[in-house]
Design a protein that fits this description.
This protein has helices spanning about 15-30, 45-55, 70-80, 100-110, 130-145, 160-165, 180-185, 210-230, 235-265, 275-305, and strands at about 5-10, 35-40, 60-65, 85-90, 115-120, 160, 190-195. The protein is an alpha/beta fold and about 325 residues long. A 7-stranded mixed sheet has the order 3-2-1-4-6-5-7, with helices on both faces.
Length: about 325
């Protein structure tokens, strides 16, 4: 099979007939062998019934329904598990992503050998309250991840080699950072393609302000897990040692200073009367806690069933 199109959706009943018809037309014009996987994330507007009707007329449509709303990451991860195509395309169900972009995305994966190609909506039809924070997050993600050639990590329109989606796990709200997850999994050939961003035609946006806080927390989580997931002691242990040594050095300094003042008959303050002593004490205690946290995390990591699971590219 050439292409699997994975579409997570939530209450998009009005757009589904037009979207699936458009995708099918593009696939037939380019002689692609394809499947459309519609993942209903607990819709309440009749989207699942619509998927059933569409499947009667189009055998290439497959449907997966969640009992309740789990989120876009869960829908994508489930769709990835079900995808059988050599190239997997993801897009949103609201018709703001154009299926006409599919042939070029497919070509870049197959001919240019990219692992992942992410869309970039250079011209957006969104309010400033959404576009400005998005630019800030994308800048922060580029800096932390080292993927400097992507302008929009969260664009729903992406293309993947099948091996990529079968070797990554998307959970929580990590769908915003799939290129980062792919990079940490060893898929480093990541490209970008300018795509059309169409105005929303049906329904209403699922965008909420909570995504900004969640997005920051998810970015920090994915950075830490990707870099230190198999060696947490390298992070907590280092921070703990530095903190403990800072506190210890401060205390030693105050003790030496007091002894110097005593020897030279200079008026002095008791070590415990100085605010720096208590700051140093807290720093040393925090350092000890960080070190112990790293030790416990290391024990947990060594006991994890995936402790020796690594990405193997090929075997000869």
């Amino acid at each position: 099979m050439d292409i699997s199109v994975v579409i997570p959706l939530y209450n998009e009943v009005e757009s589904l007939p037009e979207l699936t018809s458009w995708i099918s037309r593009v696939m037939e014009e380019n002689d692609f062998l394809y499947e459309i996987i519609l993942v209903d994330d607990g819709s309440t507007d009749g989207s699942w019934e619509m998927i059933g009707k569409l499947r009667l007329n189009n055998p290439f449509i497959r449907g997966i329904k969640f009992r309740r709303n789990y989120g876009k990451s869960a829908a994508l991860n489930t769709g990835f598990d079900a995808a059988e195509g050599n190239v997997v395309i993801t897009m949103d169900a609201d018709l703001q992503d154009s299926p006409d972009e599919i042939p070029e995305l497919y070509r870049r994966i197959v001919e240019e050998k990219y692992d992942l190609v992410s869309g970039w909506k250079a011209k957006r039809h969104d309010p400033l309250s959404k576009t400005i924070p998005t630019k800030v997050y994308n800048a922060a993600t580029r800096r932390m991840s080292g993927i400097h050639n992507l302008h929009d990590f969260n664009c729903g329109l992406k293309a993947y080699r099948n091996a990529v989606v079968k070797n990554i796990e998307v959970y929580g709200e990590m769908h915003r950072y799939i290129p980062v997850i792919a990079k940490w999994a060893g898929f480093t050939k990541i490209g970008e393609q300018i795509v059309e961003h169409r105005p929303r035609k049906y329904g209403k946006t699922k965008f909420g302000m909570s995504r900004f806080i969640n997005g920051l927390l998810d970015l920090l989580s994915i950075f830490f897990v990707g870099k230190f997931g198999k060696r947490p002691m390298h992070f907590f242990g280092l921070m703990g040692v530095l903190s403990f040594l800072t506190g210890t050095i401060c205390v030693i300094w105050m003790i030496v200073e007091k002894q110097y003042d005593i020897i030279h008959r200079i008026k002095y303050r008791d070590v415990t009367a100085q605010p720096l002593f208590y700051i140093a004490l807290v720093t040393a205690i925090i350092g000890s806690q960080l070190f112990l946290t790293g030790f416990v995390a290391e024990l947990v990591a060594r006991s994890a069933p995936e402790r020796n699971k690594y990405q193997v590219e090929d075997v000869i």
